Fold this sequence. Notes:
The protein is an alpha+beta fold. It has one domain (7-170): HIT family, subunit A. Helix content is 42%, strand content 16%. It has helices at residues 7-16, 60-81, 119-127, 133-149, 158-170, and strands at 23-26, 30-34, 44-48, 85-90, 99-105. A five-stranded antiparallel β-sheet has the order 1-2-3-5-4, sandwiched between helices. Strand 1 (23-26) and strand 2 form a beta hairpin. Helix 2 crosses helix 4. The longest helix is centred in the middle third of the chain and has 22 residues, at 60-81.
Amino acid sequence: MPTVGCELCEKVRNGVLGAEPLMLSELTSSVVFLEEHQIYRGYCLVVCKKHVEELFQLTEKERVQFCEDMNRVAKAVYAAFEPRKINYELLGNKVPHLHWHVIPRYESDETPEWPIWTLKYRRQTQSKPMIAPSEYERTKNPIMNQLAAVPSRSSPYEGATKSSSRRKERT
Length: 171
C-alpha cells in the first residue's frame, strides 16, 4: 500500500504505470530502476513494492522474496557489465522506504576499498547530470536482457525444503 508523500512509493507507482523512464523491470516483490547518477555503470535501485521502513517489517516469505529479487538484479548487472565486485546497500536513512542499492564496482574505481557514500561521491553526483537518454538505453538494455535470462524462483523456499528433507532421509 503506497504511503502519501513517500518519493519511492510514487516512483514504484509511476514505474508500474509506465511513467517512470528509469524503470527497468517489475519483479515479484520489487520494482527495479537505474540510479539517475550512473557514476558506476549499471547502478540500480531495487525498491520494495510494499511501503515498509525496515527489513524485519516484512513477513519471512516477503523478506526472502525481496532478497531474491535483489540477488536476481545483481546477477543481471554482473552478467551485463562484468564488474570487479558488486556492493549491496540497504540504508533508508534519507528515504525511509525499503530499497536496495546494487552497485557494481570496477577496476577503474579510484577508491575501490571505500563505500561509495563518501564526500567524493556526493561531489560527483552533484556535478554530474542525470543519465543522458542515449547512455540510458546503452545501460538499460543489457540489464533488461539479463533479467529476462535469469528466471525468478517459483518459491523462495524451493531449494531449502529439498535439501533439508534429504538430510533427514540420511539420518
